[in-house]
Structure formats: C-alpha cells, structure tokens
Amino acid sequence: MYKSLGLHRLAYRAQISSYVKAGLIDQAIKTFDEMTKSNCRVFSIDYNRFIGVLVSQSRYDLAEHYYYRMIPQGFSLNSFTYSRFISGLCKVKNFILIEKLLQDMYKLGYVPDNWAYNIYLNLLCCENQIDLALGVVQTMVEKGREPDIVTYTILINGLCRAGRFDSAVKIWCDMVRKGFNPDEKACRALVLGLCRDGKVDLAYELTLGTLRGRIKFSKSIFNSLINGFCQAGRIDKAQAIKSFMRSNGCEPDLVTYNVLLNYCCDELLLEEAETLMRKMERSGVEPDVYSYNELLKGLCKANRLDKAYLMMVNKMEAKGLCDVVSYNTIIKALCKASHAKKAYKLFEQMGGKGITPDVVTFTILIRAFLSEGRSNIAKKLLDQMTGLGLLPDRVLYTTIVDHLCKTGEMWMARSVFCDMVEKGITPDVVSYNALITGLCRASRVSEAMHLYEDMHTRGPCPDEVTFKLIIGGLIREKKLSLACRVWDQMMEKGFTLDGDVSETLVNAIRSNDASCIKI
After folding, report:
1. Is 215 helix (H, G, I), strand (E, B) or coil?
2. What stretch of H or E contains 159?
C-alpha cells in the first residue's frame, strides 16, 4: 500500500512538473490541489517547489494562500524559497507579508540571502522608509548576514536622496573601513548628494582624497566634483581636478567642458569661455548646442547682442546647432534692452529657419509688448500661440493678469484668472498677488479678501507680500478690526509688517477709538 501511494505521489509530481514546463500553471494548480486531497502524503518539499513556481510566475496571492495552508500542517519553506518569496513580494509592495515571512524565517533560524535583503532594502529606500531600512540592516548583521557592496550602495543612495547626508557619510566610512571599494553607483550617489547640499569639500575628501589609488574614478565622478566646485565659485579647484583627471588617463569630455563653460559664462568671463571652446575643438571634443547656447547666454548677459546674433547666424546655424533656446536667449535680451520690435522680427525669422517657437518664446514677447502698452500685438501673439496648439502656462497667465490689473481692466483680469484655473493650471502665490494688487488698487478689497481666504483653504499659502497688500487695502477702506485680524495671522506665519504701515494701522485704531469716545 505504502509503495502504491509513493508511486501515486511521484506521478502527481511528474504531472505538475510537466504542466509547469509547458506553461500550464492553472493545470498545475489543479493537480496540486488533487494531490493534497488524495491519500498521498505531501511533504515540505512539495510545498516548497509549488510555492516557488507560483512566485516565479508572479502569482503572489496564490503563493500566500498555499503558504498559510502549509503552516498548520507543520511544514515550512526552506531558506532559498523564503528568500525568493520575499524578493517577489517586493515587486507588489506587500510589506505586511514580507514582515511575516521574515519573522517566520527568524523563528526557524533561517536568514534571507543578500539578494532578498537588498531587494527589500531598495524598496524601503524608494518608499522613503529609511529608518526601517536601517533597522533591517541592523537585524541582518545581528543574524550573521554581512552587508555587501550592493547593500551599502542602496543605503547611501537612499540616505542622500532623503537629504540625510551625515548618516550617508557614516555608512560610507563604515563600508571603506571594512575594505569594500565603492562602485560607480555608490560614488555617484554620495558625490551628487553632498555637492547638491553644498558639501563639495567633504565629497572630494571622501572620494579623491581618501580612495585615490584604490579605485579608478569615472568621468561622471570627476565631472560631478568639477561641477560642485564651480557651483561654489571655486574655479581654481575645478581646474585642478580637471588636470588631475587627465593625468590619471581620464580625458575631459563634453560634459566637463560644458560645466566649465557654464561657470565662465555666468561669471561673464567671456574671453576664457571662447578660449575654452577653441581648446575643446583642438582636443577633438566638438562643442554641442548646449555649449554654444551657454556662450550665447553669456554674450547677451554682457549686453553684446550684435556679437551674439552674428555667432548664432554665422556659426551656429551653419553647424546646425541652433534651436529654440538659442532664439529665445536673444529675443529675451532684445526685449530686456527695450528692442521689442527687433525681437519680433527675429521671431518672424524662426519659421523660415525651421525652428518652431515654444511657450517661452511667446511669453517673452507678450510680456514685452504688454509692458510697452501694445496690447494689439500681444493679442496677435496669443492667437498665434493657441493656433500652434500651445497653451499658456502659469507664467504667461500671470503676466497677462498683472498687465490687465495695471491698466485697470479688472473684469478681464478676473476672467483670465478663472480661465487659468478652469484649464487645470494651479495659480501660485505670484498669480494671486497680481490679482489682489489690482483689486486693492481698484478699491475692491472685499473681492481681494475672498481670494485671500481662498488661498488659506486651497493654497498656495499667502506670503509676506499678500499680507501687506490685504492689510494696506483694509486700512484704506477703514476696516481696521479686519486689518488687525489679518495682521495677527501674518505674525503667526512669522512675517512682520513694515514700520510705517504698522504705525499707520495703530494710529488709525487710536483715532477711531477717540472718535467713539467723543460720540
């Protein structure tokens, strides 16, 4: 009899294996159910294999069902199946079951492999559950499973992303002390994070300073450090890293040069920028559209518009390196210099050059013509823009609202503001302040108060300008108790009223009190 049942079990196992290989998972499930309900004795190995198949097929709900059916029978998964199960559950973020499986493993004296731990840690870091991730690592070590380079990289990346740089540095130092050489991903995560936080010296010390000679740094790491020092205004240090980079057999690339170009053009070191461009070409690194646009930006910033225009037409267009950003840069500079007519002519040339204007182009021009009081051209541009299928963004809407308020067209200003909201574009505090300014100037403070209250309920939060506008309007309309209430709200937010305005409000209150006493 026992021999017969054993043969039946082998037959079931063979049938299930056959269905799995053929991809007939539902048939395999049906056969497994038949096997468990038959007189055949089922073992842990059967559940291990079957749950392993369900996990590999991403049938996690069924895997959970059979797991809970297995436990009361005194069976358990082996360490490998547990680890694969946990790894799979990370894909569907089933934190409750993951934690249950971990606890069950620990009770059995099992420990997940590094693969499972690392996948779980990566999920926790991506979900910003950093403290929980650190706790898992602590348990991992207590259970005798040492973190590997992947573990450290995941933690450093997660901590940097969460802005917890002190903890990231501590983990980094622990990793280096244990003899691990950080990989590219770990280095990049730490360097980028620290540089973004303004800790470029620390980023340099922990990488080039400490690990020089131990690992080979990539161009990406060198470029990140060069960019960090440029952002900090320390060009000498950036140039020194570029020289060190080259002496270590890592030639500067397009990114390296563009980072340095960006610094030179921002600081109006235009001769240095042009020298750098020539050096690029001699080194076999061809400047790209970003390189030329940076130089264009620098020339415009220095008010050398003629040179900027000639460079765009004679050099950039000839190389096919002219885009909408190039035109926008010069159009903006012309408008800033009160040459809106020239800017408009340049705008008209864009189509003939095969370059389509974008929202930024139209915003620059519309703002310029509105400020010059030429609403007819602004309206024409707005029509052209919508004709191209381009929708105004928050900046353009706010520009139009601000202009209409300044010209006293309050009904139209409110209409445009409402249109912005209806189009699904959320006004920011600048948008609200533009309309509140116009309403207060037009002695329509009650309407301004409605907007102010709307900001409190829906957002954005009023800023210092909002409070001052509202209080000023209420004082002019002698609504002093309401002005005091708004003043209290302003102080609760940490803002202070200008001395002359607060003095005016206090004097108005005293004057009002005196009038009441006389009556």
Report:
1. strand
2. helix 149-161
Host H or E run for residue 457: helix 445-458
CB atoms within 10 A of CB 227: 22
Give percent of the chain above pLDDT 70: 96
Scanning the structure block, which residue is given the tokens 């205004």? 233
Looking at the predicted structure, is the pLDDT value of residue 327 above 90?
A: yes
| DSSP codes, 205-227 | IIIIIHHBTTBPPPHHHHHHHHH
What pLDDT score does 254 carry?
96
pLDDT category at 517 given cuts 50, 70, 90 is: very low
Of 77, 126, 123, whose CA–CA distance to 102 is shortest? 77
Amino acid at 32: F
Q: Tell me what pLDDT residue 249 has.
A: 87
Tokens 């309407």 map to which residue? Answer: 447
Phi and psi torsions of 215, nearest 5° = -135, 160
CA angle in degrees (0–180, nearest 5) for 74-77-78: 125
Q: Please provide the average confidence, as pLDDT, over all residues in the chain.
A: 89
pLDDT for position 293: 96
- Do 119 and 87 form a contact (C-beta atoms < 8 A)? yes
Six-digit token string for 323: 């885009």
Amino acid at residue number 434: A
Amino acid at 500: D
Burial zone of 37 (CB within 10 Å; 0-12 exposed, 13-18 middle, 19+ buried): exposed
Amino acid identity for residue 28 in this structure? A
β-pair partners for 215: 212
Angstrom distance (rounded) from CA 250 to CA 184:
15
Contacts 24+ apart (CB under 8 A), 226-234: 226/256, 226/259, 226/260, 227/195, 227/259, 228/191, 228/194, 228/195, 228/200, 228/203, 228/204, 229/200, 229/204, 230/259, 230/260, 230/262, 230/263, 231/195, 231/200, 232/198, 232/200, 234/200
**Residue 359 near residue 379, CB atoms below 8 Å:** no
Query: Residue 152 in contact with residue 180, Cβ under 8 Å?
Result: yes
